[in-house]
Specification:
11 strands
């Protein structure tokens, strides 16, 4: 079945989403309860990752079914995890079942995940992403079609991928970036596309403890070539990103301090041109589900 000639536009995304690994670290019985609680707090969206954790489309289906109005966004689903037809038709299925509530975030992932974990071939990220998005657009679909237009964003850090986000997707989901990067990204994207950066934060006023938590969560990212290149483009040096990250680097990438201070950093992205900020609270212990802190942030940002 082809899609209708005229699709309804999805509602606006809203300004603040919650980006979290924490639900993947809970049994589903607890994760679905937490998702409902997060929705009741007033968050506009919940962002969930995909690497070697829960399958992005299955997880999104479960979360959408456990909530009533919350947007579920993937941050991000690697394009090497499924072919373009599977992605396109998975999105169409969710768009039909949950109109306007699914945001498909897609990315090229990392070479070690693609080749060492999945046995794939990682090459030419920009060209690969372009071809994938075009193949999604051309994918046949013989099931009942959605009546609301689906939305997709791509993981975009550099200028060429940001240009692709504006021409072949609904916008960009930059990760590990500063408000200054957000301003630059908006100038590349133009006024209309979604610009939804993540902002990591620690509600902690002790500098040593805040930076300890930040370094614990950033350690894996600092070893990835694409993030290293992004950090260098953002004005950091090799000395900043080596050996766990300098204080200057940590403080620029991860907001820490009082509730008011971390919320100010989140709002700085909006001031710089973001249409939505994916707020990622970094817990002091990796396995924690910090619902109380999620509520504090919601009360401060959303009311």
């Amino acid at each position: 079945m082809t899609e209708p000639d005229t699709l309804a536009e999805p509602p606006p995304l809203g300004r603040f989403g919650l980006w979290t690994f924490a639900l993947d670290r809970q049994p589903w019985s607890r994760a679905k309860e937490a998702a409902a609680e997060i929705e009741q707090m007033g968050w506009d969206a919940i962002w969930v990752p995909e690497a070697t954790n829960r399958n992005a489309l299955v997880n999104s289906t479960l979360l959408l079914g456990a909530t009533d109005q919350l947007v579920v966004a993937t941050g991000i689903a690697p394009i090497h995890n499924r072919d373009a037809v599977a992605s396109a038709n998975g999105q169409r299925t969710l768009d039909e079942a949950f109109p306007g509530r699914f945001l498909f975030g897609l990315g090229v992932s990392h070479q070690w995940l693609v080749e060492d974990v999945r046995g794939g071939h990682y090459t030419k990220p920009l060209a690969t992403m372009r071809a994938y998005l075009e193949a999604m657009d051309a994918a046949p679909f013989s099931a009942y079609a959605p009546s609301t237009r689906g939305r997709r964003v791509i993981a975009a850090l550099g200028p060429k991928m940001l240009e692709l986000a504006g021409s072949h997707a609904d916008g960009a989901h930059p990760y590990l970036t500063t408000p200054e990067h957000t301003a630059s990204a908006r100038s590349i994207l133009g006024a209309k596309p979604i610009l939804a950066p993540d902002q990591k934060l620690v509600i902690e006023t002790d500098p040593a403890e805040a930076r300890r938590v930040a370094r614990m969560h950033l350690a894996g990212y600092l070893a990835q070539p694409n993030y290293q290149n992004s950090f260098l483009r953002q004005g950091f040096t090799r000395d900043d990103i080596d050996n766990g990250g300098s204080n200057r680097f940590i403080d620029a990438i991860v907001a820490w301090g009082t509730l008011e201070q971390v919320c100010a950093r989140v709002r700085a992205h909006l001031d710089a041109g973001a249409s939505h900020v994916a707020v990622q609270l970094l817990p002091s212990n990796m396995g924690d589900l910090p619902l109380a802190e999620y509520r504090l942030l919601a009360d401060a940002l959303l009311r």
